[in-house]
Design goal:
Order of helices and strands: HHHHHHH
Number of strands: 0
CATH class: Mainly Alpha
CATH architecture: Alpha Horseshoe
Distance between the termini: 26 Å
Structural class: mainly alpha
Number of helices: 7
Number of domains: 1
Largest sheet: none
Radius of gyration: 13 Å
Shape: globular
Oligomer: single chain
Helix content: over 70%
Length: 128
């Protein structure tokens, strides 16, 4: 299920359908509470729709969750989500880059660096 949701997230991002992107991100959060990928792309979708205060809350929640120890019950699902969203050649590389720039502008520098690393990982071709 997670790879399909990440693919849908990428499809809606690429087509500029930010409403559906928000819906997919929120659906991921139902399945994987506090998932970093879902929170970051929820924030991005909200930001791109002009809902900057809501976007900041999602980004901030993602930053707090990234700093907290992972709960063992959701860790495997969250790891799958992150792996799918950053696999080489994923369509989300540009999204990660935008997230990095937005986070930096909001003063969330550590999560911005993580998002930039995700963008770089996603841009790699052939796994290396």
């Amino acid at each position: 299920m997670i790879p399909v949701m990440i693919d849908l997230l990428a499809d809606f991002y690429q087509s500029g359908n930010f409403v559906q992107m928000e819906t997919i991100a929120r659906s991921l959060l139902v399945a994987i509470p506090d998932d970093i990928v879902a929170l970051q792309f929820l924030g991005l979708s909200l930001y791109l729709m002009g809902r900057k205060e809501s976007a900041y809350r999602a980004f901030r929640r993602g930053a707090v969750n990234a700093a907290a120890p992972a709960a063992t019950t959701i860790e495997p699902a969250a790891a799958i989500s992150y792996r799918e969203a950053t696999k080489p050649g994923t369509a989300l590389a540009d999204g990660w880059d935008k997230i990095s720039r937005i986070l930096r502008s909001l003063g969330l520098h550590k999560p911005a660096r993580s998002a930039l690393a995700a963008a770089r990982a996603a841009r790699r071709l052939g796994g290396g």
